[in-house]
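Figure S7 source data.
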Amino acid sequence: MKEQTLAIHAGYEKDAQGTMAVPIYQSTAYEFRDAEHAANLFELKELGNIYTRLMNPTTDVFEKRFAALEKGVAGVGTASGMSAIFYAIANVAEAGDNIIVAKQVYGGTTTLTGHTIKRFGIETRYFDVNNPSEIASLVDEKSKIILFESITNPSIDVADFDAIVAIADKHNIITCVDNTVATPIYCNPLMLGCDVVVHSASKYTTGQGLAIGGVVIERENLVEKIKDNPRYAHFNEPDESYHGLVYSDLPLPPFTLRIRLALLRDLGAAPSPFNSWLYIQGLETLPLRMRQHSSSALAIAKYLEQHPKVKKVNYPGLESNANYTLAQKYFPKGQSGLLSFEVDSLEEAKDIANSTEIFKLVVNIGDSKSIITHPASTTHQQLSAQELVDAGVPAGLVRLSVGLEDTEDLIADLEKALA
Ligand code: PLP
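Tokens for the predicted pyridoxal-5'-phosphate complex:
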């Protein structure tokens, strides 16, 4: 099936009531048929609902639908994009290990990888997403995952998938792509040889800034990379916390299964059923919305490019952009609704952010309502001067998340703010 059909139907089998819309199963727990049924579920002899921290029928539709759109084999929903990223890391790395992360990532991912997980004894080694050959010199036997964004937020760089995957496969390391900005409509990292995809569902998924959530999706046959791979010994050895279960021996996708059985069980950042329902509503129109976000963003990027006050526009759909060739290779159908541009100074950037009317001053992206952000004083405020440079966030950078309003109105709004 094509993506627009999957976005509307994938993962939903009508229940006994035949409800056309996916119901919200607002329940914490589920009644077992008898004690044996309960035991079978816990032992995975039978699959079914146990407790909403682990699974929920509404969330299950969201996970299956998102996995279908990403052309993955299984997904697990989380309470936020950050918990999806944390779980992807915590699923493979422990104290003494290291992870390899692109310098150009969302500010929360920088603080998570550079500070929070450091206190858990996990080291982060950073590479420049524009120079993926740096990865080779960072890898050792303790490296557990390579994490990067397909289109980076807010520097709007484009990852060279082929180059990164070649190094990862050579060393048998799992790659994890944050595909939040590109969305599965424009990019399917799992089809480009990557192993795991994470998303913040808080963005284009709901599409209206309605709820915080996330999802982790794994590719088909990821078990082949994990099985007997000394990097992932804990997938190949008995899990004492789960009666000696060996994840790589099961006929189930191991990466998301372990997140569900071990991390959701113990850390518990599960989505609420109501939020999962909102994500499902959003996914239904994701392909349609992305086309408008993308075409409007390109028109605005072209407008900004010729504006005398604008030093540089970062949008990979522009022919002048350094990432244009990569963008045409990996997402020729559209480059999403996020762009950034640079003006001379912090003050000028703040002035512009204070002057727009339709573009609202908000720290979010992927909303139907257009958003303007000054990353250096907000999303990236906690980064050091060096981290700001590494993340591609100069003081005069302004980020736009182009919404679904009329493109001419949006350009007129910017024209006034830049005057
Ligand atoms: N990844 C990217 C690319 C983001 O832009 C964000 C948030 O802005 C996140 C992850 C974190 O997602 P959440 O806010 O849902 O935790």
